[in-house]
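Supplementary notes (optional reading)

For those who missed the lab, this is the record we used. Protein: RNA-directed DNA polymerase. Length: 228 residues.
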Amino acid sequence: MFLLMHHKKSVGAVLKQPDTSIVLHLIAFHSRTLRYHEKNYAITELECLAIIYDLDKFYYYLHDQKFIIHTDHAALVWLKNVKNFRGRLFRWSLKLSMYDYEIRYLKGSTNIGTDMFSRHPVAHRLQHSSHLLDIKEIKTHQKNDNRCGPKYNEINDVIVIKKKNLHKIIIPFSLRLKLLNQAHEQFGLPGVQKMLNLISLQYYWPNFTTDISEFVKHCMVCQLKVPD
């Protein structure tokens, strides 16, 4: 399930996956502020922009998968069936035609998942770990790491493991320190538990709890924050 959000200053989305009991679990989320020229877009164009941008970000999850886009903009419900778009809407509609999706209207007051970006500054600032490492870089390093072997699964050429009904990306040894550095800096130097919670939403590797703990313990800035 793909939940879409748009508000006055940014676009973003929440990606959720139902488990076997149809309970939704967070997979990833992100947002970005509107660029100067985008602020002149009409509301329908902004919503389309959000969809296109989010499909690019979540490509490796959604490519060749059937999914649902929930939006609080009712006009987008008919987006898939319109054939006479012009300009950028036409270009975007061509890109959308590559995906197998359904658009459903979700009343704004019930669109809680995405609404957190406009109402929760911490969530907005963090921006989920989908931005920490480039997926192409992960694929390349996975291919060169024999520890990312047949015991794991693959989704769109990305090696993953299923944990609690959620697929998480296996981080090869050569990228672990880079991921930890990126996460620690981007998330505002979090403690062990917070960093563990944020990284584990999307990523996994054997003994990653120990690695995160050791990494934080050896961060000089973090140690200065610990009271004597």
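If you only remember one thing from this example: Residues 109-130 have pLDDT under 50 and may be disordered.
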